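in:
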């Protein structure tokens, strides 16, 4: 049995992951900005943790006690063409998706180093390897996260600590149903795909992602990057096979030059 701390556990993937770890018999520390949103969730502890607040993180990690596995899941998204992306909105997204993940990792790493073991599982995305139209800001936060975690895996590996990136495709969690969208007047980029629209038949459920997270936590060996779901595996394989120029556009039958 492992002690598992999960960020962003109030809904979607995080809530499903908490339930899955509990079902498998692990000790679950579920966290969210507002601990009241964790009511009814099967967990050993339900703590307030805001990934943008160092004091909140310190308090929650201290109260949690020994942590064997971190599931860094808290995150947000918005849609916008690059020209229409408000810099302040991008800065906020980075603070949540990337710097927030870094803050929590830095809080749990000293304990893991002292024990000589631990696993850090970071919720990335297929957008951590590609840059879909209108999702550049979200992709930028995940690309940056991938760089941090890749370096962390190299740095902390000799200390007995493993790190991995979980890369699902679109998830039918409801999060993508009402995404904030920024456009320019007249929207000169209206021709672009990328405002969601993935058919439900191609999405995976939060429960499927949760199972993949728990499998990674329990696996004998932990690969650095773990695609979750058939669509994610297909898209990432196509990206690896595609040239960098012209750009790779997911969902297109061929790469096109912009």
């Amino acid at each position: 049995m492992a002690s598992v701390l999960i960020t962003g556990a109030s809904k979607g993937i995080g809530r499903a992951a908490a339930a899955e770890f509990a079902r498998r018999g692990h000790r679950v520390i579920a966290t969210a900005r507002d601990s009241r949103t964790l009511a009814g969730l099967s967990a050993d502890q339900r703590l307030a943790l805001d990934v943008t607040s160092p004091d909140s993180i310190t308090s929650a990690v201290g109260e949690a006690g020994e942590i064997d596995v971190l599931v860094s899941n808290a995150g947000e998204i918005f849609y916008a063409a690059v020209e229409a992306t408000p810099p302040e909105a991008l800065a906020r997204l980075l603070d949540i998706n990337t710097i927030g993940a870094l803050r929590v990792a830095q809080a749990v790493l000293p304990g893991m180093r002292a024990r000589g073991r631990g696993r850090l599982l970071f919720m990335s995305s297929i957008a951590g390897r590609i840059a879909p139209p209108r999702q550049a800001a979200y992709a930028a936060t995940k690309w940056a996260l991938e760089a941090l975690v890749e370096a962390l895996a190299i740095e902390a590996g000799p200390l007995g600590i493993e790190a991995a990136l979980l890369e699902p495709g679109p998830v039918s969690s409801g999060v993508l149903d009402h995404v904030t969208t920024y456009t320019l007047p007249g929207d000169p980029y209206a021709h672009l795909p990328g405002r969601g629209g993935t058919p439900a038949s191609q999405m995976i459920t939060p429960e499927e992602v949760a199972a993949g997270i728990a499998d990674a936590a329990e696996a004998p060996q932990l690969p650095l990057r773990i695609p979750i779901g058939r669509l994610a595996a297909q898209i990432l394989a196509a990206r690896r096979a595609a040239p960098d120029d012209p750009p790779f556009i997911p969902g297109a039958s061929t790469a096109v030059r912009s």
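note: The chain has a mean pLDDT of 92.
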